[in-house]
Design a protein that fits this description.
This protein has 336 residues and is mainly beta. The chain is built from 2 helices and 14 strands, in the order H-E-H-E-E-E-E-E-E-E-E-E-E-E-E-E. It has a single domain, classed as monomeric porin ompg (Porin).
Length: 336
């Protein structure tokens, strides 16, 4: 058996084990709790699909678009404010097979109810494989989170969230994605007419990953680049959700800012250049859910992102992080 066959065989066993575990939990939950099984199949077009699925920073200039297919299978078990989620998802990119990936996830959470508030704690583990030509380990991560909901009234609810994540890049080309991240979020939901709402939130995440050095071709010559991976990501988000008869409509606007803690460095033809990367921009999306049958829904998302960066504003810069990104996605969702 060659290396490729070993990877494929290993992945087949992993998917088989996930399915067996889900079947066991379904039978368990029939006795001790409630459950549901959700599966979906869809796809779409991303104008910057390579940028989204980078396996190496030196390919960041390849802002190429492409179609992709997505499928997932998620099992949920819940009993007396205790929940377990197990999932398996796949993104297949025909034109860039090396960026296709499979992810397995398991998470658990426990909630506590009080008179006017709820408190939830949770843990999650994720494992990913990439490159459908020869399946390779991509990354593993472990996360924790805590959420506190406070009900001011039936219409007004606030949420406070904190959490963290440790990611370990297994693929050699992303070995620099090793480190911790921490986040804090505060949000307010204003409900009206049952489940319709307006939401406003602010979130800040600190990423502390390893720096990475690589060589790349720029203007016909080979240059050495040293780029940091520790940065602060903050955004303000607002969302409007409204149900029109059986149709669910969402609009989402996010204003964000990225601040890197150290300068990028690269060799120009005559000297070493240093520059601090700062990004800011916005993302706008529209979501629509249409019921087809009792347990089948059609979902579609249209989104646009504008990113403005200090890297790319001058001719001497080794890379251009300024871009306009478009995405269309559709999916059929079935819940048992």
């Amino acid at each position: 058996m060659n290396v490729k066959d070993k990877h494929i065989d290993g992945n087949s066993k992993m998917k088989k084990n996930v399915v067996i575990l889900i079947l066991v939990l379904i039978n368990f939950s029939k006795l001790y709790g409630e459950h549901n099984l959700n599966t979906s199949l869809g796809g779409g077009y991303d104008s910057h699909i390579v940028l989204k699925n980078l396996a190496n920073k030196k390919n960041a200039s390849q802002k190429k678009g492409g179609v992709y297919l997505h499928t997932d299978l998620i099992y949920n078990y819940y009993d007396n404010l205790f929940m377990i989620d197990i999932g398996n998802s796949m993104d297949y990119i025909p034109d860039f097979n090396q960026y296709s990936k499979i992810e397995q996830m398991i998470s658990t959470s426990k909630s506590f109810e009080f008179e006017n508030s709820d408190l939830t704690f949770g843990l999650a583990l994720t494992n990913a494989l990439t490159n459908f030509d020869v399946l390779e380990p991509y990354f593993i991560s472990g996360a924790f989170f805590g959420e506190f909901f406070y009900n001011y009234s039936d219409e007004l609810i606030s949420i406070f969230s904190v959490g963290g994540d440790y990611q370990y890049g297994l693929l050699e080309t992303i070995s620099y994605l090793k480190g911790l991240s921490f986040f804090a979020e505060i949000g307010i939901y204003n409900y009206y007419e049952d489940s319709n709402y307006l939401m406003f939130s602010i979130k800040t995440t600190i990423f502390d990953y390893k720096n990475v050095s690589f060589s790349m071709e720029n203007s016909g010559s080979l240059i050495l680049v040293d780029t940091p991976n520790s940065y602060l990501y903050s955004y303000f988000q607002t969302r409007w959700k409204h149900k029109f008869s059986k149709l669910i409509f969402n609009t989402d606007l996010k204003l964000y800012h990225n601040y890197w803690f150290n300068d990028d460095k690269w060799d120009d033809s005559e000297k070493t250049v240093t520059k601090l990367r700062l990004d800011y921009g916005f993302e706008f999306s529209i979501f629509l859910q249409i019921p087809i049958f009792k347990s089948i829904n059609f979902k579609t998302t249209l989104s646009y992102q504008k990113n403005i960066s200090t890297l790319g504003e001058e001719q001497v810069d080794y890379i251009d992080w300024n871009y306009n990104r478009y995405l269309i996605f559709f999916m059929f969702d079935y819940e048992i």
